[in-house]
Prior knowledge:
Blueprint: E1 5-14, E2 23-29, E3 34-41, E4 61-72, E5 84-93, E6 102-108, E7 114-121, E8 128-137, E9 150-158, E10 163-170, E11 173-180, E12 183-193, E13 211-215, E14 218-222, E15 225-228, E16 236-244, E17 265-268, E18 271-280
Antiparallel strand pairs: 1-2, 1-8, 2-3, 3-4, 4-5, 5-6, 6-7, 7-8, 9-10, 9-18, 10-11, 11-12, 12-16, 13-14, 13-17, 15-16, 17-18
Amino acid sequence: xxxxxxxxxxxxxxxxxxxxxxxxxxxxxxxxxxxxxxxxxxxxxxxxxxxxxxxxxxxxxxxxxxxxxxxxxxxxxxxxxxxxxxxxxxxxxxxxxxxxxxxxxxxxxxxxxxxxxxxxxxxxxxxxxxxxxxxxxxxxxxxxxxxxxxxxxxxxxxxxxxxxxxxxxxxxxxxxxxxxxxxxxxxxxxxxxxxxxxxxxxxxxxxxxxxxxxxxxxxxxxxxxxxxxxxxxxxxxxxxxxxxxxxxxxxxxxxxxxxxxxxxxxxxxxxxxxxxxxxxx
Length: 281
């Protein structure tokens, strides 16, 4: 078990190239070390939204993968700074049906960031390259609708239909990845307080693409905006800030921790998702 975390990548460097960040990359990791890692190419058009939020084009998805991770701590040595070793198992991967785990050495930086160094095999080309990635921790915060901090995981596993999916919510962020055959859908959501600066992406219209969801017999609908009716300074909304693909993801189920009780089954269309974690602290 580990503390739930939110990590944003600041840059990637494929050695010997220069450091750059062409994507918006966010990793949500739960209490049971389930994670969703979504990397979306940023817009090259200053007039449009930075991230796609209407389903396409799929070329904007640089990579999406999800699974479990673990970290091996180094043996302490006097006067030496040694990295920890992190390993990410790719249970579902947008680039491969037979993904291999990747791993890297995690070097703590003086400002609190983490520099990851390692090598990776491209699932599409098979090429192995050395890389560096700089990661920053994003604070885990509660929404105005929660009594405390929340980490929730939903999983879809149906090998008969070649379907795998995972949704992870940590605090004010939620991401989902679904792969059916070669078809991939990803989403990213953020809870925004009313006094926050609105994201460039903005919400989709309420009622757009509504999908019926059944959670242990109770039916509701979800759409691109979920209004949380709170009084006081903690009022806010869940807003979808990125979407690629056409399939439904039950991210909105995680917005109500009482609805997303561990063990609950979420029926959406012909897919069954199971709540495998609901951790509150």
